[in-house]
Amino acid sequence: MSPSTTRKLLAIHRWCGVIVSLNFLVLALTGLILVFHDEIDDALGVLPPVDTAGEKVTITRAVEIARAKDPAAKVTYVFQRPEESPGIVFVGLAETGKFRDSRPIAVDLHGDGRVLDQVVLEDTFTSLVLQLHAELFAKLPGRLFLGLVAIAVVVSLVTGAIVYGPTMRRFAFGLLRRDRSRRTFLADIHKLVGAATFGWNLVVASTGVLLALSTILFQHWAATEIGAFGARHAGEPMVTDWSTLDAAIAAAEKTAPGRHWSLVALPGSDYASPRHYTISLEGGNGIDAHLPKYVVTDAVHPDVVEPVQTPWYIEAIALSEPLHFGNYGGLPLKIVWSAFTLVTLGLSITGVWIFFSGRRAPRRVRNAGNAEHERAESGATQAAA
Amino acid sequence: MRVYGMPALLSVLSVAGLVLALTGDGLVDAVAVVLVGFPLALIVRSFLRGRSPSATAPARPDPESKD
After folding, report:
1. Is the pLDDT at A55 greater than 70, yes or no?
2. Which of A71, A97, A111, B28 is the most exposed place for a label (fewest CB within 10 A)?
């Protein structure tokens, strides 16, 4: 690699890192909180304890109960989280009929069934932190902007790894020179931390890119794979009788032993055909536990269940979620994850410090203090020789 | 290249740990955490060792010299 190539890559590395640094600070701090999403929700008592005795109302009935809260809105989905909130389902209501605009209404399935007004899922502390982390409170535009930030982080990581070779050619891994200028010491820390955390950083940043695109990719999937089921019934009126909902869920679960339903998209929403329910099924062991299966069930003949194909990008998004948030390997992994987040924050801070200290200082001082550019060049020259 | 040996090893170990943690529970998770956390341990070791002259760090380099 020629010295001028190294210099260009180093410039890309520095500018990408500096431009995203403030966003990165927000992402790291909110990410640190989100690793402990479940623990925080438990501690704050987001979900009330529900009396587990008494007969459960049907899902069909739960939808009716929720709908009474806002008869003008369309019902978009029903979801449950049996591990976190047994005995409660959440019914989505939206004027537009779109998932993204939906308010989840919590319905207690016990006794006669009732709306739990005190549970406002989108206003909990962790939900607000997530909206900041994933969308900067700016919905889809915010999400796409953060996708660009994540791409810049990936570019900074990769260019950093490439210039690491020439700059470190004559030094051993882990070298920390405390006896030199502060800039040299911080540059050594930056390189040590960057090299040691490259793998983790690349995983978190690249899954972040994918998650930023997830809304668009899911919409594409709904329009193509799910839309194909509706195309067969083109011209027929939309199904509005949801009395088949419970039978449809039971039939769907029968096709996937060991799995339970987690979400049903209703006809009229953007994730279901006008004729079918789209049902996601979760469960299983190992990697299967992170990969939901999707089926479509005929809303008129609920015993007719057909699988929905999940292209590679849908499976990649499903696996990106745990790999990005670190909330999957138990508490020890969460603690290691937090440590990585803090160390990576140090990577960003030392990088920004090096960037500005190099700019602010007069050239003479810069050369005397630390000759990182020169070092990079001399290393590159040797590498090229 | 020799320079990339250790960083590449650390990245492969930690990414392997991250993926391993996806696939299992219990003992597999414990092994995965050790793999993922290994680079952090090396960072800590470098900081601790940097306090005294060390055998593995090369002699103080002179950027001006050509070898």
Report:
1. no
2. A71
